[in-house]
Specification:
2 domains; 282 residues; 13 helices; alpha+beta; Beta-Lactamase; five-stranded antiparallel β-sheet; 434 Repressor (Amino-terminal Domain)
C-alpha cells in the first residue's frame, strides 16, 4: 500500500460531491457553497467521526479503519450495496506494489460446452473483462476475439477502440459507461494488477469519454441486463445477458446472451446462427 491511497481519496470525494445537503436532511445555509455536494465536516458529522479523522481518511492516509466506521460512512454517503462493497475493498485491500498474476486458461470441458451452444452467444470472461474464450455465434455477433493479439482480447477495449462496437450498440454510451464502472469495481479488489494499470493508461490516453468516466469513480456489478444492438448482418435486436460464476475458476465468468422467446430478436439471432459454421476453438 502506498503512502497515499489515491483510489479511496477519489472515491470518497466523488461520492461526497454528488450529494446535496437536502438529500441527507441537512439545512441549506444561505450564501454560495464553495464545494459541490457535501462539505467534509458534514460527512464527518453524519458518519459520527471527527472532522480531522475524516479529512485524513479522504486524503488517503494510511489509517486502520474499523468496519463500523466504514458502515457509518456508507450510510452517510448513501452508498448502494455495490458501492459499499467497493468502499470496503478500497479501505482494506492491501496495496503492496504490483505482483505477477498467473495466466488464465479455460478448461477443455468448458470450451466443449461453449461449442455445444450453437444458438446462444457465449463468452468466458476473466480478469479486467478479458475475453478468454467465445463460441462461434458470439464471435459473429461481436468480433473474432481469438484473431486479436493476446493483449487486445478485452471487452472494454473493444467497446472503446473498435468502430464496430460503436455501431453495434444502440445505446453505446450507456454500455461503455457500465463497462468502465465494472472495471472500476475490479480495480478496487485488485489494485496490484499490472495489466489493469496498462489498460487504464491506454484507454485514458486514447479516449476522452473513458478518461472522464474513469475519473467519476462509479462502480457497477454486471450480473444481468439487456442491450439493444444493431448488427450489420441481421439488423436490430435486443439481447438479455446473464453472468454466471465459474465455480471451478473464481476469477472467470460465463456470459450468456438470449432473446425473448417468440420475438423478432429471437428470429434475428436464429438467422445469425444459421450462417455461423465455424466451431469454437478448442
Amino acid at each position: 500500500m502506498s503512502e497515499s491511497n489515491t483510489e479511496l481519496r477519489s472515491f470518497l470525494r466523488t461520492r461526497r460531491a454528488r450529494l446535496a445537503p437536502a438529500q441527507v436532511g441537512l439545512a441549506t445555509q444561505q450564501g454560495i457553497r464553495r464545494v459541490p455536494g457535501l462539505r467534509r465536516e458534514e460527512v464527518a458529522r453524519l458518519a459520527g467521526v471527527s472532522t480531522d479523522y475524516y479529512i485524513r481518511l479522504e486524503r488517503g492516509r494510511r489509517l486502520n479503519v474499523s468496519e463500523s466506521v466504514l458502515e457509518s460512512l456508507a450510510r452517510a454517503l448513501r452508498l448502494d450495496e455495490t458501492e459499499r462493497t467497493h468502499l470496503f475493498a478500497l479501505a482494506t485491500v492491501k496495496r503492496s506494489g504490483y505482483r505477477p498474476m498467473p495466466v488464465q486458461h479455460v478448461r477443455r470441458g468448458l470450451l466443449q460446452t461453449l461449442n455445444a451452444l450453437t444458438d446462444v452467444p457465449a463468452l468466458v470472461i476473466g480478469r479486467r473483462c478479458d475475453v478468454l474464450a467465445s463460441n462461434a455465434l458470439a464471435r459473429n455477433l461481436y468480433t473474432d476475439f481469438d484473431s486479436l493479439p493476446l493483449g487486445e482480447r478485452n471487452l472494454v477495449r473493444f467497446l472503446f477502440l473498435h468502430d464496430a462496437a460503436r455501431d453495434l450498440y444502440v445505446d453505446w454510451q450507456e454500455a461503455a459507461r457500465d463497462a468502465v464502472a465494472g472495471l472500476q469495481l475490479y480495480a478496487g479488489r485488485n489494485p496490484n494488477d499490472r495489466h489493469l494499470a496498462k489498460l487504464v493508461e491506454e484507454l485514458s490516453a486514447r479516449d476522452a469519454n473513458f478518461r472522464r468516466w474513469w475519473a467519476s469513480n462509479d462502480v457497477h456489478q454486471h450480473t444481468h441486463g439487456a442491450y439493444r444492438l444493431r448488427h450489420p448482418a441481421i439488423g436490430a435486436l435486443t439481447l438479455h445477458y446473464e453472468t454466471l460464476a465459474n465455480t471451478a475458476e473464481p476469477e472467470q465468468f460465463i456470459g450468456l446472451y438470449t432473446a425473448e422467446p417468440g420475438s423478432s430478436s429471437e428470429q434475428a439471432l436464429r438467422r445469425l446462427a444459421s450462417c455461423t459454421t465455424t466451431p469454437s476453438r478448442i
